[in-house]
Specification:
22 strands, about 400 residues, Adenine-n6-DNA-methyltransferase TaqI, Chain A, domain 2, five-stranded mixed sheet, alpha+beta
């Protein structure tokens, strides 16, 4: 601990903390859940419903300012603080504790417990044969030895880091509003198009084809200018274009694959069902995707992209059920699509792209503030940088 400033106190966490085991016993206490991202929130917020049984008499009481962690997931950072005004109840499986006195600032402690140094410590005390379900006992948690700055400095550090958190929360709220506006606009635009333009089945304007099956052998090596191998994980809700893939196909694999040229549109029909993407590079697809041969004769790829986003819920609900629900070419081929003039398609593309651009600007601001907090946390919580009191 010699690398810390000399006025910092070195102590075990248990010096400042007390485990709490107060039980609900009776009453109508709201059941809460511990989330590393959302915080300690009512189950109805995290799961959209109550998951606890009617009898929660064995649950632990958690009060404003208390901390809780999931002992099976602490290694992954599943720890947080109760910031709600009311008293709640958490599963007896959680470990709950509070700060003993005013010798340690609870706001500072929350930032400390969410930092990388603490996460590395959690992994060292988590025990078990299943890597993803290792248990961290409170006695081991409390034994962790760390250095803490004087109380006034703790409060100032907490004020700085909490200020960044508040900014991130505001930006997240703005992003949520933009996402809702985008979804509403998307639905409205295509509803209007269905009323005012020719409607045809996708299978009438192009051929819906499935990717390669069985799937070709892939390789993480580059094979000359070989095509990229598209994974399901390459397709996400926030990604319109595909600029790169992790893997390239071997020459033998390319011979058995389905080649897709840049500017085409592909659609995921398993796992991330109904999500479209437009490759900007030559790629190959497997049977988890379909592509649309000839659709560009009447439909611009970006217009098709927004169309598939607008009907995704319907595609998902219409999928085949089974071990892994998915779509098939028949369902996709039967989907009705409006066909406005390309000039109007371009107008719609610009409208939706402009909205996406604004959301991306907010995303970049959020990431910038997260990077700032990570950097400041590392410096301030280690003593590499000091704050003026």
């Amino acid at each position: 601990m010699s690398e810390y400033p000399p006025d910092w106190e070195v102590a075990n966490l248990g010096t400042y903390l007390k485990e709490t085991k107060e039980r609900v016993s009776e009453g109508n206490t709201t059941p809460y859940s511990v989330s590393k991202v959302l915080g300690i929130v009512p189950q109805s917020e995290k799961f959209k419903k109550r998951v606890a049984s009617n009898d929660i008499s064995n649950y632990k009481i958690i009060r404003k300012g208390d901390f809780a962690y999931d002992p099976m997931l602490l290694w992954d950072g599943s720890i947080n603080r109760m910031l709600r005004e009311d008293t709640g109840a958490v599963s007896p499986a959680y470990v709950t504790f509070r700060v003993l006195d005013n010798s340690l600032d609870a706001d500072y402690l929350l930032h400390f417990l969410k930092a990388d140094t603490a996460k590395n410590f959690y992994k060292s005390i988590s025990k078990g044969t299943n890597v993803r379900r290792q248990k961290a006992e409170f006695r081991d948690f409390a034994s962790g030895e760390f250095a803490f700055p004087p109380l006034p400095e703790q409060k100032k550090i907490a004020e700085i880091l909490s200020g960044i958190d508040q900014t991130i929360t505001k930006l997240d709220s703005q992003k949520t509003k933009y996402d809702r506006l985008f979804a509403s606009m998307l639905s409205e635009v295509f509803a209007d198009l269905h009323k005012s333009h020719e409607i045809r089945r996708i299978g009438e304007i192009c051929e819906v084809k499935r990717g390669a099956s069985p799937r070709p052998i892939q390789s993480k090596k580059w094979w000359g200018d070989g095509r990229g191998w598209t994974r399901i994980s390459d397709v996400t809700k926030s990604k319109k274009y595909l600029y790169k893939t992790k893997d390239r196909l071997s020459p033998e694999g390319e011979q058995r694959s389905v080649p897709i040229n840049p500017g085409s549109i592909i659609l995921s029909i398993c796992a991330t069902i109904g999500l479209p993407v437009i490759p900007k590079i030559p790629v190959c697809i497997h049977d988890g995707f379909v592509w649309f041969e000839g659709i560009e004769k009447e439909i611009l790829p970006e217009f098709a992209y927004y169309f598939f986003l607008s009907v995704r819920d319907g595609l998902v609900s219409g999928r085949q059920t089974g071990t892994q629900g998915n779509l098939n070419t028949s369902i996709v081929s039967q989907q009705l699509i409006p066909i406005p003039p390309q000039s109007e398609q371009k107008r719609i593309i610009k409208l939706m792209s402009d909205m996406e651009f604004q959301a991306e600007k907010i995303d970049r601001k959020i990431q910038s503030h997260k990077n700032l907090k990570s950097s400041l946390s590392s410096d301030l919580l280690s003593g590499r940088k000091r704050v003026s009191i």
